Hints:
The chain is an all-alpha fold. The chain has helices at 7-34, 39-67.
Amino acid sequence: MRNTPCKTELKVARSQRNKLRTMSEKLKEMTCEWDGLSGWLETESEQLSECIDKHLEALEDQLREWSEGRDNREGY
Length: 76
């Protein structure tokens, strides 16, 4: 890791990215398990995985900024 002022943030974000990817994969598996058994639970599981995927996209954007030494979200 280069000399970046966001070294700690990058470390935490990369760890969380991996955990979120695993969660999303597990939820997608759960969605398939509900196929034909419960449309409601199938839909809820799918929506939850989509929310995690959306959060992952935002995290990836932030990771890119921190990797470049930028932090456009300061003050939030």
